[in-house]
Amino acid sequence: MALWLVLLSALFLLADSASFVNVFIGTTNGGHVFPGATLPHGMVKVGLDTDSPGNQAGYDANATFNATGFSQLHDSGTGGGTSLSNFKLWPLPECKSFASCNTSMSVRKTLRKVLPDGSPDDAGSPGYFATNLSTGVQVELTASRRTALHRYTFPPSSREPRIVVDITNDGLTSNTEPVVNVNTATGRVTGGARFASSFGPGRYNVYTCVDFKGDGYDFKAPTEYGVWLENAPVQNSTQLIQLYSGFLSEMGALLTFPPSPNSIHTTILARVGVSFISSDQACANAESEIPNFDFDETVTTAREIWNELLSRIQVDTQGVDKEITELFYSSLYRTHISPADYTGENPNWSSTEPYYDSFYCNWDTYRTLYPLMSLHDPEVFARIVRGMINIQQHEGWLPECRGATVQQFIQGGSNGDPILGEFFVKFHEHASALNVSAGDLYTALLADAEEQPPNWNLQGRQATVWKQYNFIPSDIYGPGGTATKQVSRTLEHSFGDFAISQVARILNKTDDTTKYQARAGNFINPRFADGQWNYTDPRHCSVNDPLLSTCYLDATNRDGFYESSPMVYVPQDTAKLILLQGGNESFINRLNLIFDQNYFDVTDEPSQQIPFMYHYVNRPGLSTQRSRMILAESYNTTVNGLPGNDDSGAMGSYAVFYLMGMYPLPATRQFLLASPYFPKVTFHNLLFNTTTTIIANNFRGNPQNGMGGTVFVKSVTIDGQPWHSNCYLDWDVFVNGSTIELELTSDINTTCGEGPEGLPPSLSTGGYI
Ligand SMILES: *[C@@H]1O[C@H](CO)[C@@H](O)[C@H](O)[C@H]1NC(C)=O
Ligand SMILES: *[C@@H]1O[C@H](CO)[C@@H](O)[C@H](O)[C@H]1NC(C)=O
Ligand SMILES: *[C@@H]1O[C@H](CO)[C@@H](O)[C@H](O)[C@H]1NC(C)=O
Ligand SMILES: *[C@@H]1O[C@H](CO)[C@@H](O)[C@H](O)[C@H]1NC(C)=O
Ligand SMILES: *[C@@H]1O[C@H](CO)[C@@H](O)[C@H](O)[C@H]1NC(C)=O
Ligand SMILES: *[C@@H]1O[C@H](CO)[C@@H](O)[C@H](O)[C@H]1NC(C)=O
Ligand SMILES: *[C@@H]1O[C@H](CO)[C@@H](O)[C@H](O)[C@H]1NC(C)=O
Ligand SMILES: *[C@@H]1O[C@H](CO)[C@@H](O)[C@H](O)[C@H]1NC(C)=O
Ligand SMILES: *[C@@H]1O[C@H](CO)[C@@H](O)[C@H](O)[C@H]1NC(C)=O
Ligand SMILES: *[C@@H]1O[C@H](CO)[C@@H](O)[C@H](O)[C@H]1NC(C)=O
Ligand SMILES: *[C@@H]1O[C@H](CO)[C@@H](O)[C@H](O)[C@H]1NC(C)=O
Ligand SMILES: *[C@@H]1O[C@H](CO)[C@@H](O)[C@H](O)[C@H]1NC(C)=O
């Protein structure tokens, strides 16, 4: 009986993890989260665009902003300029005549319907999005990998329902050379244009193919058609081609459809294929992916794919607030939006390898997103790694902040290195089964480490200088005379070289292991080429900076630090850092000061590891409490429930790890351990065909504000045997499918265990393997 109960509860949990996902978390006040419809890592991300100044992902949950269109491509959680948002469709329920329709974005835009609580009448779930516009049109969206399906239900008053296809208005209103064609026999609209990238100097081409179908009735052709330029539709015109190199005007197509003979509501389906190659390919993508315009089937398929993926991590929700489970699955969901699978859509070279894009940016995601992928999605991780290696083979260096097929600005370093390192440390024994060539992977890492690209602001490193000095001097300038982020880059390059040393060790390349370990030992402060250190006020770039420095990618940031202050930027060799800072007590005092005086910056990634660093001084209870306090203060399930940009899922993966009671160190086998927010968490890894279970014995729920509670780990067993540390787990447990049992206590003074082997390893205390 016990067995079937277990099976039954497993079935119950597996059924619909997607129902716990709230896609609207972080969709206003700077989270920049995309709440529209996409498959996991889908290329097409179809969603509502608004005129919000924070519309980096198109959407804003604040109902005061107007809807401007329903576009096919987005990123999620990014900064920079508004990316993508190409090819908006827009329903017009009634204009007096074809020629009088408002087509231009600034006059057609309108508010959404507002619910009694002041929120917009929007709904969303994995693979589905809907809104009601104030014009009475209901808009529903779903997607396959390269195709969107829109469903427009017009109000009964609408006897001449029309749809605008806008070829030109991307998020940056940056189009040049737009083309639009209307097929009068079928109503098919094809076209494309060239647009600016959001975080770099490049431009990209993208194309579309839009077909229409009556829902519940058939029509042969639209009753009226034409093209439009700005706010002037021209009936019976079927083509517009503009050859100009600056953004001049808006254009697209406008179609009128016969009303439904069967219903007071006319419902029109619009199938929108997208391609970075050609409009012909956009049509072919749409025809093969959604041949029947079956909206409900497309939604169901998308949800099944999401459910299969999300259900690989299961939580026991007994004694856990519903909000915590919602936070968990919503955060996990957001880690699978980017990067996006553009396989078959690479305009720059042909290859049979997978092609992923929208790495925006590896600097954000290498710390926690890929280690999370290691736990439950190694096949997709391997495809992403193959795509990155293929980019290195054709462009010379691994991608860093690539978006929409173009290279964009680096942030701190070439953080493809720790991502490849993470993959190889975890999966080297399976690399060939996953079609990842160890030799090609290593060659790609060495290219980043050793060869300087013509413009290391776009990918790669300032390698010549790095190799010569082993730090990036403050007084050696970059492309265009820029001198930015030298300290941050020194740190990131050290970590990149640490990741390479980990790969070299597995490949038995002893000399390289020694070489890259030595290069990983660089600590930070601004330093000149002659070896002199420059003084830095430790408050610099923090909230307590008397100069209020911005420390982002801008011309005024010439002082070495990027999105972090000298107080918080902490490297991989924590044991050595503790020594340099005067031992355990002063290290604890320094960590406390970072939190008590607000140096901890929850919105930027360099701070992420700090709450867990008490582990390295044998005070894991302090890490547990600190990380729980941060989660309680800064993460929740409201539309503003993120403390900053989600950064392509980086913040989502951070929350998932905290909720599972872990924190990873990429490119190592080490997971720092605390207590989960659930009495039980299981991970299913399809590659190993194993299930790993973490059980928290004596689980008593989660303190609201993160303080106190029965949440501290007193002892650990693995498969029934005592484990030597309460502070970290080895990757082995996830390979073998172990059962890890934690004994919880309310004693915050609990330690990592007896003797030095209880402490998590550091590079200078014997390393990570
Ligand atoms: C919505 O945005 C408006 C305009 O920026 C602002 O005044 C208002 O406070 C916002 N509402 C909410 C609920 O954030
Ligand atoms: C929404 O559009 C209306 C009409 O175009 C305009 O007056 C209003 O300012 C817009 N709202 C915002 C928040 O821009
Ligand atoms: C077109 O836009 C103008 C200016 O915003 C507005 O006055 C007019 O009502 C709109 N027409 C329709 C049919 O929505
Ligand atoms: C929009 O309106 C329709 C019809 O009244 C309703 O069924 C739906 O729940 C509303 N909201 C959304 C987001 O579709
Ligand atoms: C790839 O091709 C597109 C379209 O031709 C071009 O705009 C872009 O700059 C190319 N990207 C690279 C990295 O060469
Ligand atoms: C467009 O063509 C249709 C059918 O030939 C004709 O009835 C209509 O008057 C034309 N419209 C304009 C504005 O030329
Ligand atoms: C690896 O490549 C082989 C040969 O191309 C193919 O049959 C196999 O499906 C691939 N495996 C994976 C995991 O991609
Ligand atoms: C590295 O050496 C170990 C021990 O001799 C051996 O088991 C392993 O296969 C070697 N790995 C490679 C990639 O040569
Ligand atoms: C040295 O640091 C100070 C601030 O601490 C800064 O103003 C100055 O620009 C730095 N000097 C150089 C040459 O980078
Ligand atoms: C939710 O989190 C946001 C971002 O950290 C915060 O500003 C807001 O106060 C929190 N709201 C609630 C109800 O806790
Ligand atoms: C996975 O493991 C289960 C038992 O744990 C076994 O029944 C199943 O056949 C395995 N699947 C594969 C593909 O090896
Ligand atoms: C933990 O240690 C502190 C002093 O270091 C002490 O004040 C506190 O009572 C201890 N907590 C428990 C639960 O023993």
TrEMBL record:
Residues 1-17 form the signal peptide. Residues 281-745 form the Glycosyl hydrolase family domain. SUPFAM superfamilies: Six-hairpin glycosidases. InterPro entries: 6-hairpin_glycosidase_sf (IPR008928), GH-type_carb-bd (IPR014718), GH92_a_mannosidase_put (IPR005887), GH92_N (IPR041371), Glyco_hydro_92 (IPR012939), PNGase (IPR050883). Residues 20-275 form the Glycosyl hydrolase family 92 N-terminal domain. The keyword Signal applies. GO terms for cellular component: cytosol; nucleus. Keywords: Signal. GO terms for molecular function: carbohydrate binding; peptide-N4-(N-acetyl-beta-glucosaminyl)asparagine amidase activity. GO terms for biological process: carbohydrate metabolic process; glycoprotein catabolic process. It comes from the Eukaryota. This is Unplaced genomic scaffold CY34scaffold_30, whole genome shotgun sequence. It comes from Suillus luteus UH-Slu-Lm8-n1.
